[in-house]
Design a protein that fits this description.
The structure holds two protein chains of two kinds.
Chain A: E1 7-16, E2 19-29, E3 34-38, H1 45-53, E4 60-65, E5 68-70, H2 75-81, E6 83-86, H3 98-102, E7 109-110, E8 113-114, H4 116-130, H5 146-157, E9 164-168, H6 176-191, E10 195-199, H7 203-209, E11 212-217, E12 220-226, H8 232-240, H9 253-256
Parallel strand pairs in A: 3-10, 3-11, 6-9, 9-10
Antiparallel strand pairs in A: 1-2, 1-4, 4-5, 7-8, 11-12
Helix pairs in contact in A: 4-5
Chain B: H1 9-16, H2 20-44, H3 51-67, H4 74-99, H5 107-124, H6 129-154, H7 158-177, E1 183-184, H8 190-196, E2 198-199, H9 202-229, H10 237-260, E3 264-265, H11 266-284, H12 286-296, H13 298-303, H14 308-334, E4 336-337, H15 346-356, H16 369-387, H17 392-422
Antiparallel strand pairs in B: 1-4, 2-3
Helix pairs in contact in B: 3-16, 4-10, 4-11, 4-14, 4-15, 4-16, 5-6, 5-7, 5-14, 6-7, 6-14, 8-14, 9-10, 11-12, 12-14, 15-16, 15-17, 16-17
The chains are: A alpha/beta, B mainly alpha.
The complex binds adenosine-5'-triphosphate and magnesium ion (MG).
Pfam family, one (chain B): BPD_transp_2
Main location (chain B): membrane
Function (chain B): Part of the binding-protein-dependent transport system for D-xylose. Probably responsible for the translocation of the substrate across the membrane.
């Protein structure tokens, strides 16, 4: 029997008020794999990320961690499992400086006080892996450019040595060089056995980096692809809805995957 | 942009060259240049901190001193330093609430309630002073915690909930006082001593001044040593010495002036210890970091798994506690408690002090020291007006003008920060 996926979603439903945003969504993330999550604007990608990270817990459906059903009700639960997230809106505290944001909620302490020096040196390490132009560490994040903020958010997600990384359009605000560095980093992380969920509208990046792609359309699964074998046209057709191949759960799932 | 901490090792190497006497002058001018550059950077980035309020305070003092030579006399300054304490302690609580981007309107009523609880327990029921004192402060904590918890759970803005609190606690205070009207406190009791007691021995004030400057120097020096050992950016020795030196000058001049009158007032000592302690709690522990984080973005704090309800409750409980303590100091000043305790301009002065001192109304920016600076400005204006026989009407207009200026500076610096980020 093959090892169970690191993280698996089965039949996840989520509604905001009367609107059903996610309907019976399935997804699997294996260790050492990059899964791309594709879909048009409003397809429910960010909502799915929030379901997994505990910000907007699912109403129905099962989330399995290494084959074991788990409950993710708060961001805390996801963090304890080893799930780290870069949100589309970054979720940074604009008044705190770079170091404060990186360590928010898990500050390093020394004799009960914040150990600013240790946190600062860890921050320099982490940011150094992502970019050559490390922003001013003691400036409030509100004074950074959007690309710099995105770099900070990515560095923050790497802090606790997570096992699953959820990246919601992590390179949207980044320049060419920074994008390459982030994608290289994702590659390295995969080689180290991390499972990555990558949301991106850039099919080129997805083709270059991802192992598998899952497509969401109007809150439902609309196809799973092996990125190495599927053609770009097939994937685009699935994203735009030219092909409505909604998989019935359990049956044709693995084959299409 | 990497490692643009204001100073690096290079400064020391440069300073080490040249003969000693020239070096000293050179060192000082270089330090002032560094300071000027840092100031300009902060000005552009919209982080003015306490600079505007210090300028306002200096102006107020110069103006009143030129109008009346008694304004900066040891006697007047000593009284001023005791007068700021009651409202100042309440303003410290307001700083906590402002850091969340909220406002607490109930602090006046809570201060009156605490004073009434103390007076009735001690004077009418004969409870020992220490017990009545503790219960009075706990009453404030409880009132604040109730407000904080309901504010966090209902997500109603705190200023609305605490408006309900203002009425409720005021009613409760009238009920506690009952028909007694005015209660006179024991003139020689513990609470009366809070604002009556002076350390008459000169050595006390001087030793504390030395201790405080020494502590600042030692802590920054040890931090610098640790950073040098780890090859991290650090402050230059000059910067550290200059800062500790500035603190020493302020502390020793104050000690000298206070000793020329009656010595160091106990009230002032308590106030400064509380402010310094809470400043360390807010800026150097993970509890305080959570308060700032919540003020900078509720959603971000929630996603970082912070306990939003707990923090809100704790902050309003802290504000209620400080209001109760402040109320006891105000009662101590007049050694009586009446139905008007905690009413009038007290609430407005406490909020104005925090804002004038440089704490942002938008949340997430400010320190407890702004309560001290803001109260100094407000009380200096009122004391100067009293000395120069200016009518109250003018005093209110001027205090209002200063508050207006503080709010405008706050809004402008916030705008400039955002513009800085978008560039
Ligand atoms: N808090 C909310 N309350 C109500 N509706 C919401 C909320 N969040 C998202 N939605 C709705 O859910 C749907 C999916 O939104 P979501 O942000 O997940 O899309 P997305 O796939 O990430 O799109 P994009 O590519 O633009 O980021 C949208 O129709 C949106 O209006
Ligand atoms: Mg999205």
């Amino acid at each position: 029997m093959p090892a169970p996926p690191l993280l698996a979603l089965r039949g996840v439903c989520k509604r905001f008020g009367a609107v059903e945003v996610l309907k019976d969504v399935d997804l699997e993330i294996h260790a050492g794999q990059v899964v791309a999550l594709l879909g048009d604007n409003g397809a429910g990608k960010s909502t799915l990320v929030k379901v997994i990270s505990g910000v907007a817990p699912a109403e129905r459906g099962v989330i399995e961690w290494e084959g074991r059903a788990v409950h993710i009700r708060r961001p805390h639960d996801a963090r304890d499992l080893g799930i780290a997230t870069v949100y589309q809106d970054l979720a940074l505290c604009l008044n705190l400086d770079v170091v404060g944001n990186l360590f928010l909620g898990r500050e390093i302490r020394r004799y009960g006080f914040l150990d600013e020096m240790a946190m600062e040196s860890r921050t320099i390490d982490l940011l150094g892996r992502l970019t050559r132009a490390v922003p001013e560490l003691r400036a409030p994040v509100v004074s950074l450019s959007s690309g710099q903020r995105q770099t900070v958010a990515i560095a923050r997600s790497l802090l606790g040595d997570p096992r699953v990384l959820l990246l919601d359009e992590p390179t949207a605000a980044l320049g060419f060089e920074q994008t390459t560095e982030v994608l290289d980093l994702v590659d390295t992380l995969r080689d180290r056995g991390m499972g990555v969920l990558l949301i991106s509208h850039n099919l080129g990046d997805v083709k270059a980096l991802a192992d598998r792609a899952a497509v969401l359309r109007l809150g439902r699964n609309n196809g799973f692809f092996n990125v190495n074998t599927a053609s770009q046209e097939q994937i685009i057709a699935s994203v735009t809805g030219a092909t409505e191949n909604v998989p019935r759960r359990g049956t044709s799932y693995e084959a299409r995957w | 942009m990497r490692r643009t901490t204001e100073n690096t090792q290079a400064d020391d190497a440069a300073a080490a060259a040249g003969d000693p006497s020239a070096r000293r002058g050179h060192t000082l001018s270089r330090a002032l240049q560094d300071w000027g550059a840092a100031l300009r950077r902060r000005f552009r980035a919209g982080e003015l901190g306490s600079l505007p309020v210090v300028l306002v305070l200096a102006t107020v003092w110069i103006v009143f001193q030129s109008l009346n030579g008694n304004f900066l006399s040891p006697r007047n300054l000593s009284n001023l330093s005791v007068d700021i304490v009651g409202t100042g302690l309440i303003a410290v609580g307001i700083v906590f609430v402002l850091l969340l981007g909220e406002l607490d309107l109930s602090v006046g009523s809570i201060s009156g309630l605490a004073a009434a609880v103390f007076a009735v327990l001690n004077v009418h029921h004969g409870a020992p002073e220490w017990l009545a004192l503790i219960l009075a402060v706990l009453a404030g904590t409880a009132a604040g915690a109730v407000q904080g918890y309901s504010c966090a759970k209902t997500r109603v803005p705190a200023f609305v909930l605490t408006l309900a609190g203002l009425l409720t606690w005021n009613g409760l205070m009238l009920a506690v006082l009952g028909t007694s009207g005015t209660v006179n406190l024991d003139e020689n009791g513990l609470v009366a001593d809070l604002t009556n007691y002076y350390f008459t021995h000169d050595a006390v004030a001087y030793c504390l001044a030395a201790l405080c400057a020494g502590a600042v120097f030692t802590i920054s020096y040890l931090d610098r040593r640790r950073r040098t050992a780890a090859d991290m950016p650090h402050r230059s020795l000059r910067h550290i010495a200059l800062r500790a030196g500035a603190i020493a000058v302020v502390a020793f001049v104050s000690a000298y002036l206070l000793n020329r009158f009656q010595g160091l007032p106990l009230a002032l000592l308590i106030f400064l210890v509380v402010v310094a302690g809470l400043d360390i709690l807010l800026r150097h522990t993970h509890y305080g970091r959570q308060v700032y984080a919540l003020g900078g973005g509720v959603e971000a704090a929630r996603r970082a798994s912070l306990n939003v309800t707990g923090i809100r409750t704790a902050v309003l409980a802290a504000s209620g506690t400080m209001a109760a303590i402040g109320g006891l100091f105000l009662a101590s000043r007049i050694t009586s408690v009446s139905q008007t305790s905690g009413s009038g301009v007290l609430l407005l002065n406490a909020i104005a002090a925090a804002v004038i001192g440089g704490t942002s109304l938008f949340g997430g920016r400010g320190t407890t020291w702004s309560a001290v600076l803001g109260m100094l400005v407000i009380q200096s204006i009122s004391s100067g007006m009293a000395i120069t026989d200016t009518p109250t009407a003018v005093q209110l207009v001027i205090t209002g003008g200063v508050l207006f200026a503080a709010v405008v500076i706050d809004a402008l610096s916030r705008r400039s920060q955002e513009a800085h980020g978008r560039a």
